[in-house]
# Entry
Amino acid sequence: MNAPTQSTSIETVTLIKDDQTKDSGNNVISISEIFGPTIQGEGALIGTQTIFVRTAGCDYRCSWCDTGYAVLPEYENDWKSMDAEAIFNEIEKLSNKQPMWITLSGGNPAMQDLEPLIKLGQSKGYKFSMETQGSISKSWFALLDQLTFSPKPPSSDMRFKHRGLQRCLEACETHGKNENQAHTDISLKFVVSDQNDLIWAKEIADQYPQLPSYVQPCNGDADITVDNRAYSEQLETEPEPENQHYDQKQKMLWLIDAVQSLNWNDVRILPQLHVWLNVE
Ligand code: SF4
# Structure
């Protein structure tokens, strides 16, 4: 979902479920990894210093997922079951008890019961952001300081369901009002692999004009259809197919052109900064 640290190819399967999952109530959270401080490399908080809490398990199987180690059952032995207190102890160790942003990522973090962790961290001055695809809604979304919905485009081989995203937005609004929570900053983030994805992303974004939108090129296993020589003049160098930075720059230049050709003027175009810098 975010900040890829390993690359794993995943077989494409169909959508498993889009319904709400019930929280276990036993305060056990499945964790793939906790690391940082580092910088958020994507979306609304790009450049923000943060600690990542990557939960394990996902209801999707995107064709170009770059965090298979947090998704696929064969990695289960690497996952830890931790309660909110144990996770927060780890966060305090990594941050020297200095409050900062915590990014909840996955997998799909919406599959876990993260309410106790968020409440515990916020009571100590930490802020919480989360990214999820919008397939599962939870009342505790309204506790988050920042929430990014990242609907998966056609190239992921997943099927986007408007109703799922709508339910997530309603959860934020309804529970935020009920619990008198401060407003959660919500945005949309689209990872695109080709023109078809981009047109789809704009159609979704146009339905939610109240939400800021971000678009970024896919740096997973997907091939963005970019003519290898198309941007070599702008990059003032010969194509270097094996050069990761060259590849990322080409994708960004393609994306800027493609967004402008759609007259999509109110979307922000971002790289995956951590991929560019090759940092966790
Ligand atoms: S939703 Fe995110 S974590 Fe889940 S399979 Fe897709 S890219 Fe991977």
Residues 2-20 have pLDDT under 50 and may be disordered. The longest strand covers residues 28-39.
